[in-house]
Amino acid sequence: MERTYLMVKPDGVQRGQVGQIISRFEQRGYKIVGLKMMQIPREVAEKHYGEHAGKPFFQGLVDFITSGPVVAMVIEGKEAVATAREMMGATNPLKAAPGTIRATFGIDVGRNIIHGSDSVESAQREIAIFFRPEELVDYGRAV
Ligand code: CMP
How does this polypeptide assemble, per the annotation (predicted)? Predict the structure, then answer.
């Protein structure tokens, strides 16, 4: 089983889209093994988006992601990383395939509703930034 890190960004929270977005992953059969609402400290945001440091949009990205509450989550299931990215759609909602989360809820590359890890390695790194091991649950044999 694979895990990925997902985050409903401040625009999705402010616009009341959290439930609809989480539902999509539940409907698809993914298990939510970590979930919390939080306001990201600036230094944590800079660490999370470290690969974009120096890019022209970096400061705006950090300003935005720290501007209001986000919903951080870890989902688990088969090929969770790739499938979640497929479900989210392209980074720019205007380019995202119809029906994807970003195409459905977003209209701007900066305010693109949701973040999802881009690889298994990124997922491990990002999960460790936002969750302590004891915050992640084990469904065991529950149906
Ligand atoms: P995300 O998946 O969270 O990862 C990095 C984010 O940077 C991305 O979503 C976009 O929201 C943001 N981003 C990428 N390219 C641009 C851009 N050209 N202008 C503004 N923000 C961008």
Answer: Homotetramer.
